[in-house]
Specification:
It is built from 18 helices and no strands. It has 311 residues and is mostly helical. Helix 2 crosses helix 6 (98-111). The radius of gyration is 26 Å and the shape is elongated.
């Protein structure tokens, strides 16, 4: 390779390294074109690094890149281990207005895949410096279900690293809102082996909460039955002990409605239409329908009442 070409190649990497080191980039004056160019450079750097790795000359090359700048090895590794992620991180951690972050997410999705964005955000969310910023400012460019998955992974990772998770996270079930219940459910249907322990901890806490049938958990039950159908059904199919408690709660609610009793001091309060909607949702899955009617029979509940709800 011609010496001039090699020099140009090295300069290209050193320019990227200087961008990574720049404390004032991006700022409120950084244009969309500049941010896009930074992502395109990071994409090209990523491809070059992959080729150098396959030729077994990556370490020697990075040593040469760093020879004139004396950058700490940890910083060098951080920049070049995943160049697009590093640029994304700089945008997230900058002091620019939130609209700049939205532009950054939009550009990332234009150049890279949604899966890569999800992976980068998941990793960044686990870094203390980025977590709060991300939770506050996740862009509308990212689908709600992806945001839920990211938040759930953060919760699971925190529980994995927590010495006393029951004490720390038991407050999730008090004074909760729909978003909290949504991401609790999304968390417990995660089947990644690295989160298995955390999932089991949340499921056991949830079982303890639901078994008490406390009036103070009435809102939690309400939000639980409003969780999106695909997540709700997967939770019921994945965790049979939880499903039995859910089915018994619906049966209790049915009894309340049939007997025209007040739900004011009861642990669950669903209207007749809400009860019907949730029973129909469960029975849309044949396995859950079979199990639900088994529990109805065991409870000696009025079978005709439940069959009428499905008709």
């Amino acid at each position: 390779m011609d010496t001039a070409v090699v020099r140009q190649f090295l300069d290209f990497f050193q320019d990227f390294l200087r961008l990574c080191q720049a404390e004032d980039w991006p700022n409120n004056d950084t244009s969309e074109a500049e941010m896009k160019n930074a992502f395109l450079i990071s994409q090209h750097i990523e491809k070059c690094l992959d080729k150098l790795q396959r030729r077994n000359i990556l370490n020697e090359f990075l040593f040469t890149v760093n020879s004139n700048q004396d950058v700490p090895n940890a910083f060098l590794k951080s920049c070049f281990s995943d160049p697009p992620k590093y640029i994304l991180k700089k945008i997230i951690n900058s002091n620019t207005k939130i609209s700049q972050m939205d532009i950054g997410f939009k550009l990332f999705l234009e150049i890279f895949t949604e899966e890569k964005l999800e992976n980068c955000l998941t990793e960044l969310m686990l870094e203390a410096a980025s977590k709060e910023t991300l939770l506050r400012n996740l862009s509308h460019e990212i689908p709600k279900e992806k945001v839920l998955e990211l938040k759930s992974k953060l919760l699971l990772a925190e529980i994995n690293n927590c010495e006393n998770p029951q004490e720390t996270f038991s407050t999730m079930f008090e004074n909760c809102d729909q978003d909290t219940v949504d991401f609790i459910v999304v968390s417990i249907i995660n089947n990644d082996i690295q989160y298995l322990n955390a999932v089991n901890i949340i499921v056991n806490m949830l079982l303890d909460v639901l078994k008490t049938r406390k009036f103070t958990h009435k809102n939690f039950w309400k939000f639980l039955f409003n969780v999106e159908e695909k997540y709700f059904l997967k939770m019921c199919l994945t965790h049979s002990d939880l499903f039995k408690l859910i089915a018994k709660a619906l049966i209790d609610c049915g009894m309340l409605l049939r007997e025209q009793m007040s739900a004011e001091c009861f642990y669950i309060d669903l209207t007749c239409s809400e009860l019907a909607r949730n029973v129909q949702k469960i029975c849309s899955n044949e396995n859950l329908k079979y199990e639900f009617f088994d529990i109805v029979n065991e409870s000696k509940s009025n079978l005709a009442f439940w069959e009428n709800i499905l008709s």
